[in-house]
Amino acid sequence: FRAITTSYYRGALGALLVYDITQRATFKNVERWLSELRQHTDPAMVVMLIGNKSDMEEQRAVGVEEGAGLAEKEDLLFIETSALKNMNVEDAFMHMISNIHEVISKRRLEARKKEAIIAASLASQFPASGRRLLIIDEVTATKRQNCCASW
Questions:
Q1: Model pLDDT for residues 77-91, shown as the tens digit of each residue
Q2: Where are the bilayer-spanning segments (predicted)?
Q3: Hey, where are the domains in the chain?
Q4: Are 77 and 96 spatial neighbours (Cβ–Cβ below 8 Å)?
């Protein structure tokens, strides 16, 4: 089982850790799940802590402050939802997607900066001789190569 689950973590950009606000035991399990996530994923992965069943306020066993406190302590996004009443469900996903997009954009920007530094370094080492330096991104080249069928 462990071997299978770790393969699902590979390449993950985000994770939702959901607990039931009416069941304290589910909240207590969050730290174990978070520990496992951090053990098998990129540290920059976006993680959102979700307290579900917020429509059942009278049966609440985990306070909003507890969830928010854990999220702050562990540097997680936090929201409470009600899947039954469709409260904050879409907001949770939109917030998650927005944060994932931000992380990806920052990574791309950092990669471009590194490429520019390398290109500048190479240009200074090999003065212009009428030749051009072509840097090919293997991933992009592979994607382009496999995108269309050849006739």
A1: 999 999 999 999 999
A2: none
A3: 2-104, 110-147
A4: yes
